[in-house]
Amino acid sequence: VQLQASGGGLVQAGGSLRLSCAASGQTSGSYTMGWFRQAPGKEREFVAATRWTVSTTSYADTVKGRFTISKDLAKGTVYLQMNSLKPEDTAVYYCARDYNFYISHNANDYDVWGQGTLVTVSS
């Protein structure tokens, strides 16, 4: 399976962006799709995740109430709607897949990664 992330760009603080992550290849099955981000000089951190076949989701405290993860099973695509963006949300955003039967916030548990899309929030 391959993951292709898109939708990043430059936005002013308070604005919105929607990221997409399209999966090609094997998309059926029970797994977690997650979004992570990595800012310059910082470690990769968990943002949000969803179980693929059920409605279970999880969010980092820093984005809860501002970001929403969703999915389109028919298209094999997961989305990250980002509202009320802040300069500290600036990072490269990655989507990833984890075949564990729970939602993990640990990047090491995810074994398939997309290439990343840059989000820049100006103040």
Verbal overview:
Strand 4 and strand 5 form a beta hairpin. The chain is built from no helices and 11 strands. Strands 2, 4, 5, 6, 9, 10 and 11 form a 7-stranded mixed beta sheet that branches. Strands 1-3-8-7 form a 4-stranded antiparallel beta sheet, with no helix packed on it. The mean pLDDT is 95. 0% of the residues lie in helices and 50% in strands. The chain starts with a strand and ends with a strand. The chain has strands spanning 2-6, 9-12, 17-24, 32-38, 45-51, 57-59, 67-72, 77-82, 91-98, 112-113, 117-122. By secondary structure, the protein is mainly beta.
Give me some keywords for this one:
123 residues; mainly beta; seven-stranded mixed sheet; four-stranded antiparallel sheet
Shape: globular
What structural class do the secondary elements suggest? mainly beta
Order of H and E elements: EEEEEEEEEEE
pLDDT < 50 runs, ≥5 residues:
none
Into which percent range does the helicity of residues fall?
A: under 10%
Main β sheet profile:
7 strands, mixed
Short description:
The chain is 0% helix and 50% strand. It has strands at residues 2-6, 9-12, 17-24, 32-38, 45-51, 57-59, 67-72, 77-82, 91-98, 112-113, 117-122.
Secondary structure blueprint with pairings:
Blueprint: E1 2-6, E2 9-12, E3 17-24, E4 32-38, E5 45-51, E6 57-59, E7 67-72, E8 77-82, E9 91-98, E10 112-113, E11 117-122
Parallel strand pairs: 2-11
Antiparallel strand pairs: 1-3, 3-8, 4-5, 4-9, 5-6, 7-8, 9-10, 9-11
